[in-house]
Each structure stands twice: as C-alpha cells, then as structure tokens.
Specification:
Length: 77
C-alpha cells in the first residue's frame, strides 16, 4: 500500500469517526425534545439521514482504497 493510499485511508477513517461522534452527539442532545415536536422530529430524522449517508460514503471510500491496495491475483490454472 502506498504512502498516499495510507494517508487517504487515515483521513477517511478520521472523518468517519468525527461524523459518528457528531451524529450521536446531536441525537443525544435533542432526543428529549424530538418526542414532543413532530416538526422537529422530522427535521432531526432528516439530519440523521444526512449523517448516515455521509458515513456510508466514507465507508465506501475506505472499502475502495482497501480493495485498490490489494494485489491482483493470478487466475488458478
């Protein structure tokens, strides 16, 4: 794995961790309000969906980097 790939992988991993922390923090901070306000509940749900989409994209990026770093295998004969 090249240094650039490792650096990109570390960056994506850090972004994933930061996004996870933000998502859980936001959810915990407003969870008591969400139950009593339908509009806020929908808004919070949309925000959490956005964070989940971000996490999925980061995970796909990490997966792609790992896959690209593997050496192609020779077909068995």
């Amino acid at each position: 794995m090249s240094e650039q790939t490792i650096s990109e992988l570390e960056s994506l991993t850090n972004r994933l961790l930061e996004a996870s922390i933000r998502a859980f923090g936001i959810n915990a901070a407003i969870s008591h309000i969400v139950d009593s306000d339908d509009c806020l509940s929908r808004g919070t749900g949309a925000l959490m969906d956005h964070f989940c989409d971000d996490l999925e994209e980061i995970a796909k990026g990490i997966h792609g980097l790992v896959r690209a770093s593997r050496r192609p295998t020779e077909p068995s004969q």
